[in-house]
């Protein structure tokens, strides 16, 4: 996998870590989070209606018009996809003053899943990721006390959960009823989740 780290403008309370082979892209005022943690982005992307301070002259800048069809965060993902990245670690996708941006990022996650790519979104003590049909069984370690599964596609079939308080075997879940809400890891080795058809959203909460 070729991983890109994206810093959006929502809430960021966790330490951002980078592997040397990863690149860091900031979406508009996500640049403030990079400055706060002494990180130098590889690229700044956005319309810069939120970050209005002086932009650096030693970082590549990709400027978009304010009137566009996607958010600055989504523009970062599209840019990274064009560069061959297939996994995205995203901070700052939630919180802030605009709940509509948070909803847009859930739709962005579905778009990523439909292309059989992967994303991991970080928010406080929660980690969100997508699990696509046919992917390897996803192991949720026991450092997470709770986890939930939601349907990103219209329906998910062949959903199997083991090592949890509420197991499932070859179940069908639909996106109009949150049957997978609030499960618990019970096995010392962790819980396992698998989906045979469709795209799942996993939400994991640390202890």
Attribute tags:
alpha/beta; Rossmann fold; 2 domains; 10-stranded mixed sheet; 4-stranded antiparallel sheet
DSSP E strands, number: 14
Major pleated sheet: 10 strands, mixed
SS class: alpha/beta
**Judging from the principal axes of the Cα atoms, what is the shape?**
elongated
The percent range for strand residues is: 35-45%
Helix content: 10-25%
Beginning-to-end CA distance, first to last residue: 28 Å
What does this protein structure show overall?
Helices cover 16% and strands 37% of the residues. The protein has 207 residues and is an alpha/beta fold. Strands 4-3-2-1-5-6-7-14-9-12 form a ten-stranded mixed β-sheet. Strands 8-13-10-11 form a four-stranded antiparallel β-sheet, with no helix packed on it. A hairpin with a 5-residue loop joins strand 10 (155-162) and strand 11. The two termini are 28 Å apart.
Would you kindly provide a brief summary of this structure?
It contains 3 helices and 14 strands.
Sequence-ordered SSE layout with sheet pairings:
Layout: E1 3-7, E2 23-27, H1 30-36, E3 43-46, E4 60-63, H2 72-82, E5 87-91, H3 99-114, E6 118-123, E7 126-132, E8 138-140, E9 144-151, E10 155-162, E11 168-174, E12 183-184, E13 191-194, E14 199-206
Parallel strand pairs: 1-2, 1-5, 2-3, 3-4, 5-6
Antiparallel strand pairs: 6-7, 7-14, 8-13, 9-12, 9-14, 10-11, 10-13
């Amino acid at each position: 996998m070729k991983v890109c780290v994206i810093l959006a403008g929502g809430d960021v309370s966790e330490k951002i870590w980078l592997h040397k082979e990863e690149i860091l892209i900031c979406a508009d005022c996500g640049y403030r989070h990079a400055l706060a943690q002494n990180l130098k982005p590889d690229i700044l992307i956005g319309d810069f209606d939120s970050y209005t301070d002086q932009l650096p002259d030693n970082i590549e800048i990709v400027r978009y018009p304010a009137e566009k069809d996607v958010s600055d965060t989504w523009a970062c993902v599209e840019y990274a996809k064009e560069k061959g990245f297939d996994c995205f670690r995203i901070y700052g996708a939630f919180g802030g003053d605009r709940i509509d941006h948070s909803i847009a990022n859930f739709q962005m996650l579905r778009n990523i899943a439909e292309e059989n790519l992967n994303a991991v979104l970080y928010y406080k003590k929660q980690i969100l990721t997508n699990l696509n049909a046919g992917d390897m069984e996803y192991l949720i370690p026991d450092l997470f006390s709770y986890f939930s599964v939601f349907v990103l596609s219209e329906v998910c079939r062949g959903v199997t959960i083991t090592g949890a308080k509420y197991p499932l075997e070859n179940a069908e879940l639909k996106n109009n009823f949150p049957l997978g809400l609030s499960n618990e890891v019970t096995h010392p080795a962790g819980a396992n989740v698998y989906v045979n058809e469709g795209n799942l959203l996993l939400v994991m909460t640390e202890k």
